[in-house]
Amino acid sequence: MKKDLQIKTKKNNGILKKLPSAASFMFGCFLFLNLYAVTGQNPNSGSEGSIQENKNSLWYTSPASKWMEALPIGNGRLGAMVFGGVKEEKLQLNEESVWAGPPIPENRVGAHKSVEKARELIFQGDYQEANKLVQDDVMGPRIAPRSYQTLGDLVMNFNLQGEPQNYKRELNLNNAIAKTSFTVNGVNYTREYFSSAIDDAIVVVLTADQPKSISLELELLRKADFEVASIGRNRLKMWGQVSQKGKHLGVKYETQLMALPKGGKMTSGDGSITISKANSVVLLISAATDYNAEDPFSPLTQNLGAVCNSILKKAAKRSLKKVKQAHITDYQQFFNRVSLDLGGIKGEVKPTNERLEAVANGADDPSLMALYFQYGRYLLISSSRPGSLPANLQGIWNDHLVAPWNSDYHTNINMQMNYWPAEVANLSECHEPFFDFIESLVPSGKKTAKEVYNSDGFVVHHTTDVWHWTSPIGKVQYGMWPMGGAWCTRHFMEHYKFNGDTVFLKEQAYPIMKESAKFLLDWLTTDPRSGKLVSGPSTSPENKFYTPKNPEVFANLDMGNAMDQEIIWDNFTNVLEAAEILKIEDEFTHRVEAALAKLSLPKIGSDGRLMEWSQEFDEVDKGHRHLSHLYGLYPGDQFSESKTPYYIDAINRSIEYRLSNGGGHTGWSRAWIINFYARLKNSEKAYENIKALLAKSTAENLFDYHPPFQIDGNFGGTAGIAEMLMQSHETDENGTNIMNLLPALPSEWPKGSVTGLKARGGFEVDIVWSNGALQSVALLSQETKTLKLRIGSKIMEVELAAGEKQTIKEFK
């Protein structure tokens, strides 16, 4: 509903009892000291020097002028972008399940007949006709827009006269609190913002060091599909049902705001709250929808207003000190597990935007790279908590009604990249929403496998969303790719490898890997040209090639694309490894073993590059953003110097070719390249691409540019930095874990340390280095185990006792 049509309710003319002037002053002093006690920082400090004490801060000397400069806060479910305005402040709000709704894509039942015909055409070399057949008979329409949407805006209009001095806004990653501070007419103002997982609410704290200095008007607004009303004397609510211009009716939502001023006068009505001459103000924001993650088409029947009200009342009963401390304690149980020092701090630390600009102009800033790493961890904690939905293309932060690519879950790399740092960066719990969501796709994926391909098991294509569909849709260039589910199952095995949880392996990882493998076994067919098992028809995301019969025409579909074969090899290998651990041997595992032995493997072309397709096709986009055929290097572990040295040169040539033709031009693609070079132990190339990621694909608030904004580059960059410092994907012939320390340490990081990284095998590792050489490593194992350490060309064996940290300073 438009603003001038907002529901009008009875005005609240009640006036809060004023504190005497002296009491107001004492309250202000108390609040100032309270904030200092809780955060450990002077809430009104604005000097550059104070930032030196906290390397884990983003900070700026002016408000955000656009969304990509604002600072994100989140509790996994509920988020906001903080602009830091002075006279007008805006919080752009998000709740993870605010989605437009059906209709959703549907399966093309019986399409397997056309799939079989397309296979014959491809084997005969008629790629163009195969493309057309699959496009016409297999692909469903892409239904868009049908997007994840903004929850709305909280607008705060302050009655302030005069220009601000000593302005600073910051995001402190140590405590997950955003803060704006400035001085107007001799009064020091501080505004703090955080999203508490404990209280399930966004909290805003407005303070001043002089009494009666805070006056403002509060409004809740949205671009469409909303109504606003006042509730009682200190609350606003905004509610509606999400749609795309009246179509695609989605979730019903409600958000509520509670204002808790100290001192002054408060009035409410006409969908707004006015506060005059308060000493301080605390704002609490809650939100709820009727989205049912267990069954999206059966909405929850809860009273959304009652849910929001209950959250607010519960939080309001607790003191600000307790609310804030609970938030910090909860957040730090995740964040404090890992610290990173890459050196580089000398003198005063400049604002983040200035540091980013300096890197774009060629400067080296190792501490900015360390900040970027921790920022990625912060974003994952803030957008993916146990019980929440997984982080989408924008995490949870989106100001659109029609977001780019619907802000959905792209499973041809983007969703998976979001979770690359989860295990190694010691945030295993943040991985759980991913597992929950992929498991929720199994019923739909089994239906799609049967109806479209006449196959057993479950399948997911290149994208999906909160409505749990799995159909092939859109253009064959991106949509005809049934490998999304198989790729996602790798994460289940990785979680086991990092944590050693055999219950998880038995009850979650093995069952879903098996369902994927069942589909792949039915999907594979024998290539008459080689006698090997190949996948297809499918695209190599999202690339295309010129057809041999007509070099002026391009196609997308082939049989036996490198990425497909590598993902299938990965899935079958993980299934068999899990079965061995769980002591499972049956007809199914024998089928997998036989198929793996007959699986076609990627080839090396006449120019020495790893081939992306089954044949040496001429590429249309020689600098394409996807490097799909290198999956087996990273995130997979099919290719390595020790096991497959003949592939390593071919992989290097492939990366160099892409980069020389303009590749890596999107943030997430550049992040993938960092991980490739880290796996290849090419420290300087990995470092060069971190600099390029910061210089070319990073916004002022450190969000990743695709462009536009996609959060996957942030997470991929974080994983890449960890991969440069420690790798654990290899084992020896006896299955003993090999931990490679500082495998891709660049000369620009001569001295530093990292604590709390996790390694496969259930280890935690702290590393200290100086002059480019390892000084010490501290290892903690979940169980008594033997581990091999690789330091350069040296390998040493270490015996670790369960639960005891062992520090090693001599490396023989």
UniProtKB/TrEMBL annotation:
Transmembrane segments: 21-38
A UniProt-annotated Pfam family: Glyco_hydro_95_cat
Native species: Arenibacter aquaticus
Protein name, UniProt field: Glycoside hydrolase family 95 protein
Keyword Nucleus: no
Ranges where the Glycosyl hydrolase family 95 N-terminal domain occurs: 58-293
Keyword tags: Hydrolase, Membrane, Transmembrane, Transmembrane helix
Domain Alpha fucosidase A-like C-terminal: 737-796
Matches recorded under PROSITE patterns: PROKAR_LIPOPROTEIN
InterPro entries reported for this sequence: 6-hairpin_glycosidase_sf, 6hp_glycosidase-like_sf, AFCA-like_C, Alpha-L-fucosidase, GH95_cat, GH95_N_dom
Gene Ontology biological process terms in this record: carbohydrate metabolic process
GO molecular function: alpha-L-fucosidase activity
Domain Glycosyl hydrolase family 95 catalytic residue range list: 320-725
